[in-house]
Amino acid sequence: MITTITAFRMASPLTRDEAKAIFLSTAPTYQSVPGLIRKTYLLSDDGLTAGGVYLWKTRADAEALYTNEWRAFVREKYQTEPSLTYFESPVIVDNEAGEIQSD
Fold first, then answer.
1. Reduced to 3 states, what is the DSSP secondary structure of residue 51?
2. Residue 79: which pLDDT band, with cuts at 50, 70 and 90?
């Protein structure tokens, strides 16, 4: 499995409520993305950094999302350039399901 972390620096701080409204507006677009297991939206305490943590089945699945079109969407939505970092995730502890998963 692959975890990606995206982050983008905001020009001005977002409140939690503003961020929640934005995140809820984009969340449905991620519900049917092939290979995406989970996405968690992020907002820093000061409201100046937003982003997401994504858990993917494979790196190819992740790379299929992070296209030039995705970058353009982020730039338009948040007026900033996103950063993107990939991590191998060979073991996942899922306390809600009571499972330890390994690829």
1. strand
2. confident
Is there a domain that residue 91 lies in? yes
Q: Structural domain tally of the chain?
A: 1
The whole model's pTM is what? 0.91
Domain limits at 10?
Answer: 2-96
List the CATH number of the domain containing 84.
Answer: 3.30.70.100
Does residue 103 carry a pLDDT above 90?
no
Q: Are 87 and 2 in contact (CB under 8 A)?
A: yes
- Order of all β-strands in the sheet with 83-88: 36-43, 49-56, 2-9, 83-88
Q: Is 58 inside any structural domain?
A: yes
Instruction: Report the distance separating Cα 40 and Cα 42, nearest Å.
Output: 7
The verdict on residue 29 lying in a domain is: yes
Q: Is 103 within the bounds of a domain?
A: no
* 3-state SS class at 19: helix
Are 89 and 1 in contact by the 8 Å Cβ rule? The answer is yes
Place of tokens 């338009």: 76
